[in-house]
Amino acid sequence: MPTLPDHSHCNKYLRILECLQVLACTDDELLLLKDAVLSIGMRPDFDGQSLFDQDLRKFDSFGRHRQALWAEVENSDPLFAELLSGTRQECGSATWHTYISKVKTAIIHKVMKPIRNRRSRTTRARLTSEKRSSTSEVIDLDDDTEEEDEEMTGVSTTLEEETDERPGKRAKLSFRIPDTPETSSFASWNTTPLRKSVGPPVENEEMSDDHQGPSNEHLPCHDQSSEEVAGGFANKMAQLVKQHLDQRTAELDATFEARVAAQVVTERAGIAEKRNKIAQERESLARLVEEQVQQRVSEEKQELESVIMGEAEAQVAAERNEIGLLIERQVQIRLPEERITWEEAVAKQLKSLF
């Protein structure tokens, strides 16, 4: 018979070789067992949901669904019932219970590991997609207002019409926002080419003067503003993400506590109901046993009385027979003597008469 491995190592779960050693099975048999566990665990038979698609620490904190899973696995194939019953090992029930519990935990962990990895990848991809969509919505500052675009279109059209009066020479248009606190703050948030309504149309000479532009001292530094905007935006996004995560964590904690409390209440109610059923069954069994005992005692008493009465009647009949025989013998013995005495008395009476 195979020997059980030493499970005193620090690993949380048994290794494959240790599972094979505990079950005393081959690789193919263990693979069949894992496939059966995966197939049954993915069915929506556990409160209408798939067991392996849930967080077992929340969904099955008391292990009720896992017990049902292993019961279904044992009933699905005689091979699995043989492997999980411990008939291939020579050990006590307590020792086997310890080892088989570790084997079941290790098998469920190995079966659910790829499912958890796939689920985490899907969650990360979804969160990344949501983060990207929220980021694109926040940094899309080009679509400020439609009114500004309409104003810019009107100004550009007017200036082009005026410059067309000079044939062969087309003025290059550029628009500049005066360096004021309001426009500087706006430029720090928008790194795209600045567009602003510049009021009514002006003459070509004024436009040529504006085209020369001010000195570099008065122009806003777009690169520096872009870096500052990027840094501020990153900090703001980090704060928003942290705030969202904290809020979501608090909501999940509250939901988890509520679900655990509800599950505990449900489990306690189920346990109390089971205890009541057990108490009722015990009472009914006690009454049934008492009735059966009384009936059996009555039957035994009747049988005993009938036996005693039969023996007593037989003994009385035997004694009557013996007494009758004794009386008959006494009569036979005393009858001749009494007859002689009677004859003598009769003879005496006859003599006295004659």
UniProtKB/TrEMBL annotation:
Residues 139-152 have a biased composition (Acidic residues). Residues 181-194 have a biased composition (Polar residues). Residues 118-223 are annotated as: Disordered. It comes from the Eukaryota. This is Uncharacterized protein. It comes from Cercospora berteroae.
